[in-house]
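[step 3/7] fold_predict: job queued, chain A
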Amino acid sequence: MNSKIIIIVLGEPNSTFSEILFKYFKSLKFKKNKNKLILIGSKELLLKQMKKLNYKLYINEINDVKYARVNFINLINVAYSFNKAFSKISSSSNEYIEKCFELAIKLIKLNKLNKLINGPISKTHFLKKKFPGITEYIGFKTKSKNQVMLIYNKELSVSPLTTHIPIKYVAKYVKRKKIVDMTTKINEFYNSKLRRLPKIAILGLNPHCESIDNISEEKKEIIPAINYLLKKKIRVSGPYSADTFFLKKNIKNFDVVIGMYHDQVLTPIKTLFKFDAINLTIGLPFVKVTPDHGPNSEMLGKNKSDPTSIFCALDFLAKIK
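[step 4/7] structure written:
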């Protein structure tokens, strides 16, 4: 497994991801990075966006990962037809984005690579309701099942049991097996990649972990899952009520918090750490990282986007094998 190469799919062409990458490439961190970074995307578009944002950087175009060089912006070109450096997001870029992902996955498989960063995509235009999110899309492309989304920060990470599904459907997905499988995968990831066993908190679904129903999801699914995990020697506890859990005195005791739905854990983690976090996908043949920001179309071409998350992503991948 070649752990010294990081593949970066540029994703939605009309996003702030290129700007954020330019800021990283101009930094001292890039000069100190010992990994070989390979961008997958349109060279012509990247050069136009670079000019628009007033950056002057050299792109080392290659046709094979073996030609990648440390401290160079290596790029494997994917053709893309466009009119302006930045335009309104639409479905016109779908075929281009698809080709970028397919090429990246092919290169990872052929060269036994294990690190991928993907730029943001538009769920509305690219996924078109076929997949809840990019996590599930990559899972489908790699024929992987039961992926886990982990929003990682070195102080505290969170993971939603359900990802991008409407709130009215959440309860039916709160199942003992799903909680057990997900917690086990997170525990194994921390053990194998970060070389430590995490302390994991599990939140309840209902306010105050209570329900007007005779049998709540906590009693029927969550507590039995916790009891099973404890028997497996996994350091887990709960269920905790989400309304007060994220107080400092509570979170200092844990490494990971598992919530029952997306905003239950992503809202507090983004409030606490802003862009100082990354979106990891566990359960793929490689480690996939998504910087924790979307296309951010409101700030296109303004050169004001916060690059913290791409710094976090590359720092994290530099530390793992």
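[step 5/7] annotate
The CA atoms of residues 191 and 212 lie 39 Å apart.
The first strand starts at residue 5 and ends at 9.
exit 0
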